[in-house]
Amino acid sequence: MFFHKQELQFSAKPDKPDAIFARRLQEVLGGQYGEITVAMQYGFQAWNSHLPGKYRDLLYGIGSEEFGHVEMLAIMIAQLLEKAPVEQSEEAAASDPTIAAVLGGMDVQSAIVAGAGARPVDSNGNPWQGSYITASGNLLADFTANANAEMQGRVQVARIYHMTDDPGVRDMLSFLLARDTMHQNQWIRAAQELQEEGVEALPVPSTFPLSKEARDHSYKYINFSDGAMAADGAWASGPTPDGHGEFTYLDGPDTSAPMPPPTQPDPRFFGTDAKPPLIDKAEGVIRDKLS
Amino acid sequence: MFFHKQELQFSAKPDKPDAIFARRLQEVLGGQYGEITVAMQYGFQAWNSHLPGKYRDLLYGIGSEEFGHVEMLAIMIAQLLEKAPVEQSEEAAASDPTIAAVLGGMDVQSAIVAGAGARPVDSNGNPWQGSYITASGNLLADFTANANAEMQGRVQVARIYHMTDDPGVRDMLSFLLARDTMHQNQWIRAAQELQEEGVEALPVPSTFPLSKEARDHSYKYINFSDGAMAADGAWASGPTPDGHGEFTYLDGPDTSAPMPPPTQPDPRFFGTDAKPPLIDKAEGVIRDKLS
Amino acid sequence: MFFHKQELQFSAKPDKPDAIFARRLQEVLGGQYGEITVAMQYGFQAWNSHLPGKYRDLLYGIGSEEFGHVEMLAIMIAQLLEKAPVEQSEEAAASDPTIAAVLGGMDVQSAIVAGAGARPVDSNGNPWQGSYITASGNLLADFTANANAEMQGRVQVARIYHMTDDPGVRDMLSFLLARDTMHQNQWIRAAQELQEEGVEALPVPSTFPLSKEARDHSYKYINFSDGAMAADGAWASGPTPDGHGEFTYLDGPDTSAPMPPPTQPDPRFFGTDAKPPLIDKAEGVIRDKLS
Amino acid sequence: MFFHKQELQFSAKPDKPDAIFARRLQEVLGGQYGEITVAMQYGFQAWNSHLPGKYRDLLYGIGSEEFGHVEMLAIMIAQLLEKAPVEQSEEAAASDPTIAAVLGGMDVQSAIVAGAGARPVDSNGNPWQGSYITASGNLLADFTANANAEMQGRVQVARIYHMTDDPGVRDMLSFLLARDTMHQNQWIRAAQELQEEGVEALPVPSTFPLSKEARDHSYKYINFSDGAMAADGAWASGPTPDGHGEFTYLDGPDTSAPMPPPTQPDPRFFGTDAKPPLIDKAEGVIRDKLS
Amino acid sequence: MFFHKQELQFSAKPDKPDAIFARRLQEVLGGQYGEITVAMQYGFQAWNSHLPGKYRDLLYGIGSEEFGHVEMLAIMIAQLLEKAPVEQSEEAAASDPTIAAVLGGMDVQSAIVAGAGARPVDSNGNPWQGSYITASGNLLADFTANANAEMQGRVQVARIYHMTDDPGVRDMLSFLLARDTMHQNQWIRAAQELQEEGVEALPVPSTFPLSKEARDHSYKYINFSDGAMAADGAWASGPTPDGHGEFTYLDGPDTSAPMPPPTQPDPRFFGTDAKPPLIDKAEGVIRDKLS
Amino acid sequence: MFFHKQELQFSAKPDKPDAIFARRLQEVLGGQYGEITVAMQYGFQAWNSHLPGKYRDLLYGIGSEEFGHVEMLAIMIAQLLEKAPVEQSEEAAASDPTIAAVLGGMDVQSAIVAGAGARPVDSNGNPWQGSYITASGNLLADFTANANAEMQGRVQVARIYHMTDDPGVRDMLSFLLARDTMHQNQWIRAAQELQEEGVEALPVPSTFPLSKEARDHSYKYINFSDGAMAADGAWASGPTPDGHGEFTYLDGPDTSAPMPPPTQPDPRFFGTDAKPPLIDKAEGVIRDKLS
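ok -> structure tokens follow
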């Protein structure tokens, strides 16, 4: 169960409205790596969890914080849109540089659809979608997904930090940056702990029998391009992070298989295949192949 | 430039058709973490790269391998569909258990749309989409995304390995598992090397000035749920992976801000707000507020 | 802020697993009118609200309940999937009617992607999306949207009630039906109260000046089909619900305007237009129109 | 069958082109609540109707009018785009405020893809999609959906009315506003008539046996937030609109159920679960759990 | 304007219900090349047309027929679903081969969402979307798109013809096949006429000055794969269909350009670039690059 | 297998950055008819091909070239974005016309998400999706789809050619225009060759027995609109392109079928149907129809 409190975790109050920045902030609310994504991602990972205890508590504990961040951002965006202009025709814009600027940077649907309100969309107006989230049931894979989500999220917040100089907005962003720092650290640490405790190991999934994998091909770097410098990387020689092998480097594939012959499905799928010519040029007729 | 060779990197030939398994394999071809995703993801990361040298060569080198895996899977799926049945009505299915089974497991569009062919969709028929990929320009974030993609991909291949006992299919899957093992190891190692070389560091992005982050909140675990076991995790005490702090644990938020008052945008957005009543009950008329 | 408690509002425990029913239940979790929709819809309506007081409190109060319903359904689905079979090839299915049945009814991605877990998708595997929700800032419109959402949701729950006879599942559904009954009643009553208090009125939006509307056309039923029975409805004669007019019935349009001439945009858009023939048949050459 | 007449129901002719406004108008053509939505929604409700007679005639009669509105809007948009500029580079825009303004407000795809033409998309360029419509077969639910659609649509038209001062455009909008007024009134009246005639009743669906619903929970307002003012609403006490109960108010949930234990699916889904540690620290080996 | 008549163009009445076939038929209603696509495509081409006269009349004349086909298919699907079963649990399916078959072949949302009704989706339940259509304003390009749409559509109808043996359904399909035959022929003929009349010519768009095209590369087949047989095609030698050149064949690219150096955007985008190492190993500190 | 070479087929280097034009170019990279579409379309057609030999070699040969064009465009876009500005607030834009212009024309996600990089999206930021491609297995249909794709693509490139005057960009566009000219010609010629060789013929699919088609309706133009000029077209009289008939013209439908009665599905779908009134007005009670 979720309980709501009509307070925010941190101040979310702009010094003044800025409809252009409101659109930018939508990325962090409803984008691929926005707050809706992490809130739902941690939620589904918790609900699908096969492990009781500290890992599931962690998912519940942070997931709920993220739902609060969704709210902070929505509230902030609504305030940034508070003075969004109504007149937005070509004529108005051509004669008023401010309107022209706003038109260029504002999400038009925040005006027309939401009446100067926040929406569950990204900064280009693409609606948030369930396929943004990851919840596989394998915690080492999923915590890596979470670490990535927090990194991408912090990169985006850092980018938009310089797209405003509003003290109130920057104040909220400095808080979100801090929480992203925390969550990056935490998911990386949690992924380590899974391995230290032997709950999961590399390669993920660790319980698939390695004997069923084509082990000859498990540690070879195979270069399918013509740049040779990748041979110098730590991924091309030395021990592998999973502790089971040594990296080697190949300057191209060392295996090959012939392309199988084209398929010949049932003729009633009406594909073009190697049947005899339809048109008998001698007779000048089309043969009715299927009657 | 890409050059194509009419050979496959590894054998992709089923012992016999299996239209049901073909649908499952679509996940690994066109799903969120399928081969189209990793091929395009490594491609865009290379094209957007700001660094010449070994990291970009790595992206080009593996990205091209993945385009070949797209091809292997498409070719395999076409063969698995080669004997897909044409008659698929309710009557046929009710009287023939094999047809009923195929109907239940097969992607109907592979028959109707592709004529027994592969498609750029996942195992539920959702089309592949560009929002599956990640290419932020920040390599530590992106290599973490790549490690996750290879983990999720290997989990999925491992799952479908047990959904077939066809030796030809399992042979190809054992190869894909091995390559996923390699690529997991490689992206993890590459992410380490970025940090060892000081090209990027935690927290990502490492060049955003920490002084602009609300550092008081950067290392606190804040529990928004009521399970207390997360306090026992390595993410709740001890040094943080970024090397800059110590984790602490809070049993709830230690900050709060009042909910800002509701916004009052231009009345011409026609939202419901705190205006005087429209209906003057004494007079029994609706006041025309905007004339 | 949202706080989470590791309890459910009502029992969500099936008597036994049923992977087929799990897929059906996904509609109520992640479909157009599922619990994610209403939770997010009431949330965004609250965050975008321009009115303090009881209406906003109502949105917060119920929105948070709905997030708990999201959780109940996800937890229920994970349990329904607990015994989802792993072997799912054509051969296995053709020889085992139970596997064939499961294949036919189960969401394959719940196995391959989520490892027997719930996902933010509908019963056909379409990901939930932000464009399912409505939050216009106009409360009479939005409460009508909410009433509709609760009606559609209750219709769907009623339908799937008969697709299971599991006592544990039916118990949870009987609770959800009751809450949908409450929420239908409540949004209808709240929409009435908005009008009773004169906060909004019909037609929505009530503050748009009726003088700017083409009032001659505001209460005419215009029949564009050839069935005449619609003339018998209460929408074809008598007073209109907004209290401002009388319905009339027309057996076809009473207005008409000529189709404007085709547009002639800049020739550099390279559309096909009424330019002189490109080919001068006398000269046998193509004229280069744009040089 | 549909028959087309090369006339419009009402004048759709701008006084002058305005590419910026054209984009805004796309919302009303191809958005969530645009004319394509209502035309298709009423069509599918008619085609799926289980009732002959006046209700189906109503759906056919209005649905066809809406297809004509789709045409009016497309024709209007094409004319608004007629003078859309071709040069749109950064340099051109920086030196010409009109081009800068147009760039900011215009849908670039209307130029590049449609050659200054209308498209089946909303004002952010999101393509219209089938999931916007509602046609459940239950007419009371569906007419409520229709009333909502006409309300949202009228709110949007009212908003964009003030984004232009073109007399020709406003003329068309004043007509659309009037038709939306009619259709709001009509669907509300039709929903009343369904109830008056006993064809459907609240709660929807009215034929689901109330005895199978957990009636104890059917009329309680349960507050999951901390604002107490919702207790003052008409939805918290007094008779319920369905005529079967009395609203009551609770300041929090009065039921609770324990969170079920985590699921334990087949280990071949390779989730992270409560299995014995993979790594035996004493022996220093990873145990191969599945062979 | 569109006017509706409550008759169908051709009989659309199955001899008996078949919920499995109903799903297949959804492809022809709401798929990429279904009737909604062609109806909307011809509509938008007409509305965006820059040419008055016979070509626009053609678009209007056929577009309206296609809206009637949308209706025929929806009506047919509703009838095919009329006896769709309600009980669809795992238990029911495992014990009843008919239910198992229906589960495998039926669209579950047609039951849960539409109550045994048609929906604007394809045979996998993906909603129809506006990006399926093509209306560029260039008639030769668009008529080629139309010819393709009618070909793909007829291929799909031909495929599903063999998925039923219901005489009523086959009767309707035989009519749709005939109309697709007509429309294929007609769009091909119309594309020819555009060229015969010199309204458009190859290459499309014909009014773009060929002098601005890199004409050296306009007629070369360049083989980027290793199969040599394409050299034998009529596309590798001989005159080109546009009448302006001769095909030639190259066994690989004859041009090349160096890969431009990686980009160096503003450091405040926080990408990973060739900046000096962040970590000064001698000093053991991270340099704060941006302060 | 695909092999990559770190060279481009043609120069892709702008003379100077232009973030506005970068967005336009995204259409040609990731739009409905962009390079990703043709690369994937030709790839899937090759992989699904049922014919060995020259036609499949053709698909492989060109498909690989198109993957290289994807790369050229991505590289070009990254360079066009190289100087994309970071400050983009309302205040900055209102005071600086260049920033206002950039805001209006630039894809904000290219900054926030990709850090000044290319993305697999169109010019409105809609992600590329698998449903853009066509690969039916019928080569005459598919080659017609390919001809259309190259026509639409060339129209779009021609349009954006005039949206820049950057010599470097125009140079690349002149090359792409030439290749589109080649590919238009080639697919048209290949479609002719399929017919000349009798591999496929009109109507597509040519192997469906014409005897099963309702031949009476195969060559009639049926006018469902009121413009009579379409009777003058070559599609209304004279021989049909498939060589099997003569076009005729009808000024309206010559067939009609009654609308089937509304369906009556299982009452447990809870649709509104012709059941006896729920409310017995005499008794004043609602009848419980299903117990």
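The mean pLDDT of chain C is 94.
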